[in-house]
Design a protein that fits this description.
It is a single chain. By secondary structure, the protein is α/β, with parallel strands linked by helices. It contains seven helices and ten strands. Strands 1, 2, 3, 4, 5, 8, 9 and 10 form an eight-stranded mixed beta sheet that branches. A two-stranded parallel sheet has the order 6-7. Helix 2 packs across helix 7. The longest helix has 17 residues.
Length: about 230
C-alpha cells in the first residue's frame, strides 16, 4: 500500500506539472510591463490558478532580453516592439498611444494636444542610449519620421527617473500611455497630435525551446486577456 501511495503521489505531481500547476515560470519584462492592465491582471490570475508555480521574474530592457530568450534561460519576455532575430516568435499584447509629459506650469501643459515640433523646442529628458530600452528607438524613430530632432538635455536609465525629472521642471518627455497610471501633481500627460505616435508591447518566446506547461498557461492567459477573450 505504501508503494502504491507513493506511485499515486508521483503520478499526481506529474499530472499537475503537465497542466502547469507546479514547476517554474521564467519571465522577463521591461519596466513598463507591470503598468499594463492586461499584464498585471494575467499575473494575478496566473498566481490564483497556479499558486504552486514559482514565478521567476527578471526586469530587463527590451534588447537585453533577446539573448536569454534565444538561449532558453528566459521562457517568455515582455518587451517593446523591436527588431528580433529569426530564433524568436512574438505576439502583440498591447498597442497604445504615446503621450507627452509636461510640467504643469509650462504653457504647453494647458493644451489638449501638442505636436512633436512643439515638444522638440523644449529641453528633452530621455533614455540613455546605452541602457537598451526599446522605447529609445521607438520614440526617436517617431521624431525622425517627422524631421524632428529633440535637444536631449538629460539622459537617464529608467522611465520612473524621466517622470521625476519632468515633474521637477527639468524638461519634457514622451512615454507610453500605460505610465499614465502614475499621476503626479507637478506634471501633466498631454496627447500627441501625430497619429502614429503609438507603441506596442510584445510577448516573445523562442521558436527552438519548448515552453513549459506553466509558460504555455501564462501565454494563453495573457493573449486571451489582451484580446478581450
Amino acid at each position: 500500500r505504501q508503494i502504491l501511495g507513493l506511485v499515486d503521489e508521483a503520478a499526481a505531481r506529474a499530472e499537475r506539472l503537465h497542466h502547469g500547476e507546479t514547476g517554474e515560470l521564467r519571465l522577463g519584462f521591461t519596466s513598463s510591463a507591470p503598468f499594463i492592465r492586461a499584464i498585471s491582471h494575467t499575473l494575478s490570475t496566473f498566481r490564483r490558478l497556479s499558486p504552486d508555480v514559482h514565478i521567476q521574474t527578471r526586469e530587463i530592457n527590451t534588447r537585453e532580453q533577446i539573448v536569454p530568450l534565444s538561449e532558453g534561460s528566459l521562457e517568455l519576455g515582455l518587451m517593446r516592439n523591436t527588431q528580433l532575430p529569426d530564433t524568436l516568435a512574438w505576439q502583440q499584447v498591447l498597442r497604445e498611444p504615446l503621450l507627452a509629459m509636461i510640467h504643469r506650469d509650462h504653457p504647453l501643459a494647458a493644451k489638449a494636444v501638442v505636436s512633436l515640433t512643439e515638444l522638440a523646442q523644449e529641453p528633452f529628458v530621455f533614455f540613455d542610449p546605452r541602457v537598451g530600452t526599446g522605447l529609445y528607438d521607438d520614440i526617436l524613430g517617431l521624431l525622425r519620421r517627422y524631421g524632428v530632432t529633440p535637444v536631449i538635455t538629460q539622459e537617464v536609465g529608467e522611465a520612473m527617473t524621466i517622470i521625476g525629472l519632468v515633474a521637477a521642471g527639468l524638461g519634457v518627455s514622451i512615454l507610453p500611455a500605460s505610465f499614465k497610471r502614475l499621476q503626479l501633481n507637478e506634471m501633466r500627460w498631454v496627447a500627441i497630435a501625430e497619429p502614429d505616435a503609438v507603441s506596442e508591447m510584445w510577448l516573445v518566446w523562442s521558436k527552438h525551446h519548448e515552453l513549459s506547461a506553466a509558460a504555455q498557461r501564462f501565454k494563453k492567459l495573457l493573449i486571451d486577456a489582451s484580446s478581450g477573450g
